[in-house]
Amino acid sequence: MISQFFVLSQRGDNIVFRDYRGEVAKGSAEIFFRKVKFWKEDGQEEAPPVFNVDGVNYFHVKVVGLLFVATTRVNVSPSLVLELLQRIARVIKDYLGVLSEDSLRKNFVLVYELLDEVIDFGYVQTTSTEVLKSYVFNEPIVVDAARLQPLGPAAIFMQGSKRMPGTAVTKSVVANEPGGRKREEIFVDIIEKISVTFSSSGYILTSEIDGTIQMKSYLTGNPEIRLALNEDLSIGRGGSVYDYRSSSGAGPVILDDCNFHESVRLDSFDMDRTLALVPPDGEFPVMNYRMTQEFKPPFRINCLIEEAGHLKAEVILKVRAEFPSNITANTVVVQMPLPKYTTRASFELEPGVVGQRTDFKEANKKLEWGLKKIVGGSEHTLRAKLTFSQESHANITKEAGPVSMTFTIPMYNASRLQVKYLQIAKKSSSYNPYRWVRYVTQANSYVARI
Amino acid sequence: MSGHDSKYFSTTKKGEIPELKEELNSQYKDKRKDAVKKVIAAMTVGKDVSSLFTDVVNCMQTENLELKKLVYLYLINYAKSQPDLAILAVNTFVKDSQDPNPLIRALAVRTMGCIRVDKITEYLCDPLQRCLKDDDPYVRKTAAICVAKLYDINAELVEDRGFLESLKDLISDNNPMVVANAVAALAEIQENSTRPIFEITSHTLSKLLTALNECTEWGQVFILDALSRYKAADAREAENIVERVTPRLQHANCAVVLSAVKMILQQMELITSTDVVRNLCKKMAPPLVTLLSAEPEIQYVALRNINLIVQRRPTILAHEIKVFFCKYNDPIYVKMEKLEIMIKLASDRNIDQVLLEFKEYATEVDVDFVRKAVRAIGRCAIKLERAAERCISVLLELIKIKVNYVVQEAIIVIKDIFRRYPNTYESIIATLCESLDTLDEPEAKASMIWIIGEYAERIDNADELLESFLESFPEEPPQVQLQLLTATVKLFLKKPTEGPQQMIQVVLNNATVETDNPDLRDRAYIYWRLLSTDPEAAKDVVLAEKPVISDDSNQLDPSLLDELLANIATLSSVYHKPPDTFVTRVKTATQRTEDDDYPDGNETGYAESPANAADGGASPPTSSSSVPYGAARQPAPAPAAPAPAAPVPDLLGDLIGLDNNAIVPADEPATSSGPPLPILLPASTGQGLQISAQLAGQDGQIFYSLLFENNSQITLDGFMIQFNKNSFGLAAAGPLQVPPLAPGASTRTLLPMVLFQNMSAGPPSSLLQVAVKNNQQPVWYFNDKILLHVFFTDDGRMERTSFLETWRSLPDSNEVLKEFPGIMVSSAEATLDQLAATNMFFIAKRKHANQDVFYFSAKIPRGIPFLIELTTVIGNPGVKCAIKTPNPEMAPLFFEAIETLLKA
To answer: Per the database record, which ranges form the MHD domain (chain A) (predicted)?
Structure first.
């Protein structure tokens, strides 16, 4: 069980502080912050999420720039505490619509009320927004969400995609709309984070998809929902691990592993791959899945470094989008560490391109290439001329790279897992709530070695 | 609720407390609710609003749940400091616990259990008994936890009143939430009890396994963790348990998954069928890997656990090494753990893949990660004989890039590789020698020197190479000096020519006569004697064949591993330390001492104050009646301090190193008189060093009075002190004069202080941050409080007329008022004398109704005057203090001082 829970701002200010057991001294927040800020142990400069100072164990997670911290003196389950901290952040966000220092301060009474129901004497009672609604009476004061960084994977829907309403991200599940009436709507987001490592010759060394089917329901009366997935979906790799299907883009979808939210009933899952559930309020993952089956990576990266005279070299970076042309990736950033002795880099983009920027980060000797959008099927090139302050010891390619890439591709998913239909148990024939099924793919660790 | 809560954080310039008091007593409900919110807001930012206790408690009798919750929150925070007033709330609690609304019933029981005041505890029993049998599950589950709360306050009471039986009954409750809480409460009680309370029989086991399926995710963790203590009778039962638990591996909550893994691993020990075991391993692998898709914080915990699991059952993840490859955006703490596991899973089958990864990591930006990657290559070479050559060629490739820290790290691991495979890879020595001049880290240098010495006969210019190091011999770190000594001796024994002979003279001279390092000197003398008596024997000793090392790969000792595996999914498995090495759970009562920084800590009878500490120490520590009290005040007992069996003459206090500072002062001659000093750095924090200190004014001079007590096992010397910037620019006027402190010794010193040296900006604060260092320990930091009255100067006396003039000339906004309801002036004369002694000068006195009004003046350096008006009824509690000063921002500090003075 935990002793204290607190939320600190980036500057170390106490925003929320709740002591559940009175067995850890009050100065713990300060001790914690100093320790984390000046961490230097075991040759690492970043504090691990769990550590012990003078008999007090500190757990922390970072959520939208805030530190959610718990302390304890006993040998608890650390995954329980860390998971709990994430859930508290989610519950608070469900209630406040936006999680930020400002919204926490404006709603501190509500937050304390929530904390009293979530934890009693250090023991988690519930983190379900649905359950909490019957015990919590304060109403949230909604803060302006315009400039605030949203939380969680669905946050990517905030990024400039006009096709999708971003409201699910910042709408409180309990506060009423200004008009007094709630809009009947349900959001189902299929969010995939992909990790790919290409070898220097362009082969895929590792590839992995971490996916989530995220749901946020604003339906009154909590009707039952049925979600149908690909019928040929199979779980668990058969045979040898290295037995990847060579074909990509066809054949059944094979997940390595998946898990489900506790509200999900799997009665007919084995038969027809449908999930039935009565969605609780608040945002929650219906299903998490993981896949290492080979898939077609959305981007191919090509990098060439050549010496170009004394103390000079040229880098040619090519990025090719290998998805259909009706799909557009946005907020693409390509990064590449350059040799430490690089002093200058001058860039040359293709003639006439718009929405691209280039930068040489002097401090950490990094090349950065930003592309506002990349349309499927297109290819882009960047040339960079480098100037060095000394001769290279060996091969320049050994001292530069790897090239890493971040991007978001709406309406695209690499796994081909699909929600075939989303059925809402009907109350009446006229009942027809808004249903949003949205796909998005995001880079997790997308790296090309050179 | 209207408007924004944050407005409650804004403060008016003066009289915040009286204003709140007024609002709390308003006839309007909304205004009262708003006021309570303001109070809570003040409380959360650490302001002392305890003086509003009665007013807030008066708001408790309300039907409004929102307001009631706020009042309860306040109560939990302050009841401890106002135990007598807290009793006022009891009636409402008891009434609420019978309210028709289950939420109110639960709220009452929940809150009462959090108020750790003995008097209230008595009243808690009846409501708790009722609530444990309540019809509403919400009330029952709250009551279940409340039993654990009560046990923490008064274990006897819980046992006497039969609460444990009621709690055990709840295990069979039909509501899974109630079951989960009952299990959690019982598990905690068991943890703190020596006799068996919560024993899991096969009957409870099956009940709990059934409840498992219906519980919330958190309840599942409680139950799984409680069940993991259960020892199955035979393989069959173990298999049955595992079968019931396995579906939990599919849970989305990582804590459930890890607790289920723990349970399965434990039962697996009993299962004899290899098929079943293999099958279970297969089932556990995917969920374990899936944990690595969670947030990095959880990944870290998972990786630390996996590290243990693969040491016991390497097959589980043998085929999954790819998932441990580092992602470029992994936090460093995740990358480091992944590397460890990659080494553990590296095999002849996957080593090529793994080496490719390591090589890539070794060219990344993060220096620490790069070093670890290089070391990992070396460890794989040592672990996998057939791959050693490939590993070495990768290391050589890395050395050729000539990145300094890569080269040094590579040399360190190559030394180990030579130890593992003697006479196999010496051909690479030439390449290593090329990097000789770039080595600047002791460990790398020492490793290189060892290599040269070990293979002196194969390196043509070994003597030149070693000689180049000899010039700087006296400046080298001990580690390098030792290796140089040994290597030179080896060289001499292998090539007894003129050059080495001269070198050995120089080295032996340096390592015996010119050094203060006993290790080096002893080793040098042994070599010297060996060489001078029997060179052949020296050869046998120094050049003896060394045992081949094996790969440890940070393998844990088997018994430790067993213990850690039993603690999977607990902190122990993250730290890789047995629980008893870091769990220092103390009964909550003992914790009170740590409340020093609690804003009102010093104002209450319960909290530690110097006077109390003296009482506690004076009564014999073995007297049972004072044990809880005495224990409460002692910071964790220092191991070196034996409790005196018989009264010991006070004089000896210092000599036998009693950590009980209450015995020290009083009659002790030679050192300054005065009350015992408050302990600012308890021995438990200071690795045995305890520091007590307080500011004091004496003859117009300010001193910092300090008491150092050394309860550690070593002599401490070289004490120095430094003060952080503070509101008054207090700093030491000279160096700290503390003699070396032998173990058990203590010393008291007066450090003269000066003002206005290093002033901190911002509003005046009483915080004084102090740092003390010595030669043996890390720097200690602690906080002290500046009490304003030590600054009162002796020229602060004002004539009546000038007092009146000054009072009138200052605007009313400079008047600040504070009430001290808990303070009583019992004798005007004694108080006046006492105040005069601290340079607070009496000016006049008048009667107002039944009250006495006193006027005083005082002055602090830089000529800042304080005009003071004290109003009280002699012999009755309650003092009102109004002050006028040109610097009203000093008022809070002044009030702190006057409060201390009046209490003394």
So the answer is: 183-449
